[in-house]
Specification:
Number of helices: 2
Strand order of the largest sheet: 2-9-8-5
Structural class: alpha+beta
Largest sheet: 4 strands, mixed
Order of helices and strands: HEEEEEEEEHE
Helix content: 25-40%
Shape: globular
């Protein structure tokens, strides 16, 4: 009888534990699927982004990244501004690397958010139009050593925007 009581308790604990684990896994899987679907459908509808920065930036100047979203579709389209320069640095959406391949430290905030993004997190772009913003990379990344740096956009899973090309600049004293 004692063994049956211990066995029953163990089964109940395992059942509750696995229920919690399954619901979290399902939620994460669903979030990933929704984000991937959003990313793929946005690109198919004509939204894409391009980045630009001055070729050479002197110490003391802003390292100003221009981020432009274009809409080639026949209708207005929208994208999630999370993980883009259209919001303050509260997520690491860029990989910034030195010429030797060393990743530059991200020094800004990291926000955790609930899914799905609310309607206020989306920016609409009219048909055949574009929207742009600029951000100073020094506010989010520890760029201090002279050298060449390469920037790659990695926020596409959240925003749904694709940036095909990396860009580079030289930081001088």
């Amino acid at each position: 009888m004692k063994n049956l009581s211990i066995l029953t308790s163990t089964v109940i604990v395992l059942a509750f534990s696995s229920c919690g684990m399954n619901s979290d896994t399902t939620k994460n899987s669903a979030d990933t699927t929704l984000t991937t679907v959003a990313a793929n459908s946005t690109v198919e509808k004509g939204l894409f982004a391009k980045m630009s920065v001055k070729d050479t930036v002197k110490a003391g100047e802003l390292v100003e990244l221009k981020f432009t979203v274009y809409n080639n579709a026949d209708t207005a389209q929208s994208f999630c501004k999370w993980h883009t320069p259209f919001e303050p640095f509260i997520s690491k959406y860029l990989d910034v690397k030195s010429a030797s391949g060393e990743e530059v430290n991200y020094k800004a905030a990291m926000a955790k958010r609930m899914m799905p993004p609310p309607a206020s997190s989306y920016i609409a772009v009219n048909s055949k139009d574009s929207v742009s913003t600029k951000v100073d990379l020094l506010k989010g990344y520890d760029i201090s050593k002279p050298g060449q740096y390469t920037i790659t956009y990695v926020g596409q899973n959240m925003s749904g925007l694709m940036v095909k090309d990396s860009i580079s600049f030289v930081y001088t004293k």
